[in-house]
Specification:
Elements lengths: L8 H18 L1 H17 L4 H4 L1 H30 L2 H6 L5 H29 L7 H28 L3 H23 L5 H8 L2 H13 L6 H24 L7
Length: 251
């Protein structure tokens, strides 16, 4: 009688994360677009950096990129794989369910680090924006927190909406709304009251902690509050996303 051999959890997880990285590489056009949009915006602002400041340009570009990764990248890929039954097939394996999502999150966290590094490199080479060593280090940390917020928001969208096509259209709508309100609201084009709302929105709090992380001298009580609010958003979105999430798209 043949004995079933169950692989060690560490080996199974390494195989799973290798497969997720391979899938991400095969979808490199989507990865390229997630990196290209914030970099194009950063390059296009070269003429006004003297007025708005290097930290503003870098933090705005990074926030747009994080929004793209969490909402356009993560949410849509999860919805697509769920619709294809990928998660259902994975769940019949000995792997714990949380390993499946943890592997996906590891891939996205690497994307966040890659995006941050690319923004720094383009900002330095093209726009001549240089930060201190502590500024670079702290920005990587705040980018991870901001990325966690948007990954949680993406998870909430996938949990709330079951159909993959609807997730696609909803994600695009939320993405455009956040970007448009974030950019123009931050510049005060929609009035003072809406600007205050934008500052404390997910877009605004992430942008605030990124900008202050780049220039520690500007870190104040408002930044500390934005850090707490960002953390609160991340916890709330993740909690709701996990609570509402279903492994198959059946209603």
């Amino acid at each position: 009688m043949m004995q079933t051999i169950i692989p060690k959890p560490s080996i199974a997880f390494s195989n799973l994360i290798r497969a997720d990285f391979t899938t991400q590489w095969r979808n490199r056009r989507s990865v390229l677009m997630s990196l290209l949009v914030p970099l194009v915006i950063l390059v296009s602002w070269k003429g006004i950096i003297a007025q708005v400041g290097g930290a503003f340009a870098l933090s705005m570009s990074l926030t747009i990129g994080l929004t793209s990764i969490g909402i356009m990248g993560y949410a849509i890929s999860i919805a697509r794989d769920r619709d294809k039954g990928v998660f259902q097939r994975l769940r019949v394996t000995p792997l714990p369910s949380y390993f499946i999502m943890l592997s996906r999150l590891c891939v996205q966290l690497l994307m966040i680090l890659l995006l941050t590094a690319c923004v720094f490199i383009v900002g330095y080479k093209y726009d001549h924006i240089a930060l201190s060593a502590s500024g670079y280090a702290l920005t990587f940390l705040t980018a991870l927190l901001g990325g966690a917020l948007y990954l949680g928001l993406g998870q909430m969208i996938v949990g709330l909406v079951k159909n993959a096509e609807t997730v696609n259209s909803t994600s695009r709508l939320v993405y455009i709304a956040l970007i448009m309100l974030g950019i123009f609201g931050e510049l005060g084009m929609f009035g003072k009251q809406l600007k205050t709302m934008v500052v404390w929105s997910p877009f605004g709090t992430v942008k605030t902690i990124l900008a202050s992380g780049m220039q520690l001298s500007t870190w104040n009580n408002e930044t500390s509050m934005a850090l707490l609010v960002t953390f609160g958003y991340a916890i709330l979105f993740s909690f709701l996303g996990i609570k509402w999430f279903r492994w198959d798209s059946a209603v």
